[in-house]
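Protein modeling request. Please complete all fields; requests missing the sequence field cannot be processed.
Requester role: graduate student
Desired output: 3D structure, token encoding
Chains: 1
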Amino acid sequence: MSDETVLAIGAALLLVVLAGLMWRDRGRDRTRRRPRETAAPPPETCVVVDGSNVMHWGGEASELVLIRVIRAVEARGLTPIVIFDANVGWVLYDKFQGAFAMARRVNLPPRQVHVVDKGVVADAEILELARREGLKIVSNDRFRDWSVRYPLVKAKGRTLRGTWSDGTVRWAK
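Delivered output (173 residues):
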């Protein structure tokens, strides 16, 4: 075999391996079309939404309440970054739902939705992102168990709270 043939075979194998890696990294949920990606929002307009908390603002877990809270956040000119507990799909739909599926359900780009892995505490990820990026949090959770590690939970105005009543999101003052 000539050197050129060996190089051609090596290049072809490299392309096959790279294509396989790209396919593997496309995400877990390949059953439906993903929402279209858009440019990343500027960090100063972002807020972290505790998705597993706000879906209960009306009492029982509700996709409608979740979506309306997200839209209310957007109506304030803010970009929601929604973080869910691993069981969100089971709570709302009786089956696992990853980040791509939840992004479709709430009509957000996948980069704005995160479902933590099983065994991971979503509160820790919410608070760490808020601390690291200087973001506000949308949640009624007081995060008391986290106040020593994340003093930001005690800061006035750092958490946006609200309720769902009469079909409307009402922000706490």
